[in-house]
Amino acid sequence: MAPLLITVMKRSFFLLAVFASAPAVLMGAQDWPEFRGPTAQGLSTATNVPVKWSATDSVAWKTAVPGKGWSSPVLVNGKIYLTSAVQEKPDAISLRALCFSSGDGKLLWNTGVLNPDVESTKKMHSKNSLASPTPIVHGDDLFVHFGHLGTACLSLDGKVRWRQTEIKYAPVHGNGGTPLIAGPLLVFGCDSAEDPTLVALDKATGKLKWRTPRNSAARNKFSFATPLLAEVDGRTQIISPASGFVGGYDPADGREIWRFRYGNGYSVVPRPVISHGLVFISSGFDKPVLHAIRLADAKGDITETHAAWSYSKGVPNTPSMSVVGDEIYFVSDGGIATCLDSRTGSLHWSERLGGGFSASPIHAGGYLFFLNEEGVGFVIRPGKTFDLVSKNEMGERALASYAVTDNRIFVRTEAHLWAIGK
Questions:
Q1: Cα distance between residue 246 and residue 291, in whole Å
Q2: Looking at the DSSP assignment, which residues form a beta bridge with residue 168?
């Protein structure tokens, strides 16, 4: 086994070092504290997860969400956190943090965090929003990020601890990627049209700790990917995709340790996943390629030395991937779901689900859950043959990813937050 310090269990899950230090508030076993959950890779040990529902069946509750946004729900200790943008006046926008009860969907608090200049909010992709990055709960802190518009930390009862609006850059298509907690740091990409960088803030104060230039050779510099924390050769690294390459960075000072180049791939969105000593990356537009990269002894330019395999059919531009056991699963933006052997890249199956996809799949309760942009949820039994368990229509646009706990799935659609389950 490669010296990647992640325990891999057959048909089970692995826990990344992102939760190596115990937080001040003890999270439950089935909490979902950040984008892609407790492993940051879409994996949960939740049980009795519902597999069949509709807009009216198996809906525990449904509540309206103020404003607009595509941040995914996070869940800690019975509370669900979201961000949203509320147009208060034609010339006034409020970027807000929201908290709901997971038991009955009641809105517990709604805090205004930032009031950006309206001109800075106008250039945005039609599938984006002013509140697309997902919140993070770490200890007794809630971190909310609005890309180039600013970042903030709140208490879990909705009081703002600090705001950071000094990190300036010119985005393309608006904000996107979610930050990462790396020890005392809050890390995120500022992958703008020109001079893209990776940034780390002191998570206690919001002050800038370091800012590392990407030095990308790609023609288009902008990207939106969420970084991932991992232990490689006994040291913690930040793995962060960008336009043209993915790099490993030292959290202490932001130094680039290694990079793997993938040409002119840009507007990279999917969060990396790791298993079996490999990191899996989608190279982004215009034609995404899935690269499996060996991490052991990665230093400098590893493009020619650490490539394990690649695959180019039905690879996502937007949804992240999931590794369950020895297989890697993903769905293209155009709705083609695929299962490969994660060690070799050999194809097991590829099937059309239907519709467009932006949300990232999850694995919970022994099933894979996919969600298309029309609000149709697909449940698939993992395995080397395609096994569609159910197709579940909710009737409302959906770009955010699932959160899950025992007996429940939480879904954010265009206007509502839903709890699916009994």
A1: 10
A2: none
Number of C-alpha atoms within 13 angstroms, CB side, residue 309?
12
What integer pLDDT is reported at residue 10 of this predicted model? 33
Q: What is the mean pLDDT of the chain?
A: 91
CB atoms within 10 A of CB 92: 11
Hey, what amino acid is at 180?
Answer: L
The whole-number pLDDT of residue 327 equals 98
Percent of the chain whose predicted confidence (pLDDT) is above 70: 91
DSSP string across 219-233: SS----PPPEEEEET
Per DSSP bridges, beta strands 180-182 and 160-164 are unpaired
Residue that is written with structure tokens 């215009």 in the block? 286
Cβ-contact 258, 247 below 8 angstroms: yes
Looking at residues 70-96, what average pLDDT do you find? 94
Alpha-carbon distance values, 396 to 104, 253, 416 (Å): 20, 44, 9
Q: Is the pLDDT of residue 376 over 50?
A: yes
Least confidently predicted of 29-38, 234-243, 382-391? 29-38
14 pLDDT above the threshold of 90: no
Q: In this structure, how many other beta carbons lie within 10 angstroms of the beta carbon of residue 170? A: 13
Amino acid identity, position 284? G
Tokens of 229: 């924390």
How many Cβ atoms from other residues are within 10 Å of residue 194's Cβ?
9
**Residues 198-206: contacts with CB within 8 Å, 24+ apart?**
198/227, 198/238, 198/240, 198/242, 198/247, 198/249, 198/254, 199/167, 200/251, 200/254, 201/151, 201/164, 201/167, 203/138, 203/141, 203/143, 203/153, 205/162, 206/151, 206/152, 206/153, 206/162, 206/163, 206/164
C-alpha–C-alpha distance, residues 289 and 292, integer Å: 10
* Distances 136 to 75, 187, 345, 369, 394 between C-alpha atoms, Å: 9, 12, 32, 22, 26
Tell me the pLDDT tens digit for each residue of 350-363.
999 999 999 999 99
Instruction: Walk me through the domains of the chain, giving residue ranges and CATH numbers.
Output: 17-420 (2.130.10.10)
The answer, yes or no, to whether residue 181 has pLDDT greater than 60, is yes
d(CA 188, CA 152): 13
For residue 269, pLDDT beyond 70 = yes
Q: What is the pTM of this model?
A: 0.92
CA distance 122 to 370: 31
